[in-house]
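Supplementary Methods S3. Complex input for the WTA-bound model.
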Amino acid sequence: MSSNSSNAIESVLQEQRIFSPSKEFSSKAKIGSLGLYQTMVDEANSDPEKFWGDLAKKELHWFKPFQKVLDWSNPPFARWFEGGTTNLSFNCLDRHLDSERENKTALIWEGEPGDVRTFSYRELHSEVCRAANALKSIGIGKGDLVALYMPMIPEAAIAMLACARIGAPHSVVFGGFSSEALGERLRDGEAKAVITADGGFRKDKIVPLKVAVDEALAMNACPSVESVLVVRRTKESVSMQLPRDHWWDELVPKQSEDCEAEQMDSEDRLFVLYTSGSTGKPKGVVHTTAGYNLWAHLTFQWIFDIREEDVYWCTADVGWITGHSYIVYGPLSNGATTVMYEGAPRPSNPGAFWELIQKHQISIFYTAPTAIRAFMKSGRSVPDKFDMSSLRLLGTVGEPINPEAWMWYRDVIGGGTCPVVDTWWQTETGGVMISPLPGATPAKPGSATLPLPGIQADVVNSEGETVSVNEGGYLVVRKPWPGMMRTIHGDSKRFRESYWEYLQPKDGNFFYFAGDGARQDSDGYFWVMGRVDDVINVAGHRLGTMEVESALVSHPAVSEAAVVGRPDDLKGEAIVAFVSLESGRESSEELISQLRNHVGNEIGAIAKPDEIRCSDSLPKTRSGKIMRRILRALASGQEVIGDTSTLEDRSVLDRLRS
Ligand code: WTA
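Predicted complex, serialized as structure tokens:
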């Protein structure tokens, strides 16, 4: 590990600061004391079915009430709220229409070239109904998978809600993924339709989304795709293939604004979202209707202590789970005002975020540590130019936050008064699992603090035994929760093995393993240390090292590749690839740039290695296993310590070092 990152770990270990919620904040908060939090925890633990059942009845609309709260007779396959029927789009829209919320702003969208659109709950409802009818008109119905490959425009949220409305599960593919990666996801999910745009504005460039869809489909990646719906955004000229392709602005506006929400069974599939694991193939994480809805709804309400007048902004992309749960579903299910931003801060507009906070009087702001570290680096003079006094609460997500960044966030962005909630969770968990409740939990910079009520998190060793205070171990969850993933699309065996049987507890116990390492301090606070599997976290984006390796070896010059993470001050981790070349190939700057671009084409720009080192071979054990421990040390410029005696050819180390 680099000295920087060991300093970071040292500082986390020595972190002693505690920030209790202010009296003012607590007095207005819904959960305003640690005592109240503890009461909820006790209730959830003593009778989980009553706890979740009561909340589900109170917080969601049901067409038909459920009969059973949880069926856990066939673990790890949970069934929640069986017998009930509900609809996520109904919960996000229709139920707000008979109240004052009808004309409340549901969505404020800020486009990259500066265009703004706002939708009241009534208007959003009409748009979603029209889009839902448009989907029906091209033959999409209950159970058909619809892929979305879209920029951050209102139509992305509208399309998601329209799918949920008619019971067509969606599979949102991040717009930064390449056509190859898109094709792989379309094929795996057997998508019947794709919703995309002519292009998207990303920083100062145009991303040709429709071209990528055409490429993915031309490779015959997905014969099941029958139609493509294209939103006009950049007005780039694109080729429309008839009768497959339809323009959104020709098909949607002419539809009726009445579309009854389909009555969905609680366990009907709601969406599939692909994420990286420790094998080359991304996993299609499956979430179902009622449990996910309840979890996104409750966690949003608890963690952001949402009030009627709040304007809430999460800077994620809808292509990731954070965008699903905390731009679209959690906020709208609670009747909140959610902000969506197409752009990003960049050298030509470094104050973009702060300007938006000032302009829309944003009161709750949720972003990633990597963004905070980048802002810190360019200094407080940028944010200091803006009036951000509307803010009352700040959140972070995506990777561990170092205490320095946490303090800077609180002091510079939050004016020293806004509570900071560091929220730990994953695509698989559906919503936040460990986080302070801002009116109740004293925060410690760098700690996600305590599990939410009903979440039985623990840190265990490889035998499944709880480790002692401050000892590192595997972060696990012992009991099922409503928002948990239900399976991996098409691979329930992998679901069981990678999450539920990864650790082999001695006592035969069974629990969910998240892939992260953590420790718990003497107050029971969780300090998440990062992934312990072959997944790396690059600027808050989750990537499997094997995915990058498979992309590299698919290039004709590469015979073998091993990819590791190197601690990075800004991005958390940087990608370092070690490749051995086919005989007759020589390393050159040109080849390295070719390899980087090749990975970009295979996966997307986020996966391009920061550094590629070529050699004639990789360090292996005599039985042929690549010694990643050694590569990690080499990547971060550290001494290779520990046993190297099993290394087959020691001279390879010197060659890689140079
Ligand atoms: C990491 C994003 C530390 C973790 C919501 C997890 C975090 C992975 C935090 C999931 C946090 C997320 N502190 N680590 N507050 N939040 N992570 O699926 O390694 O894209 O396993 O979901 O991000 O990434 P995913």
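Residues 121-137 form the longest helix (17 residues). The chain has a mean pLDDT of 94.
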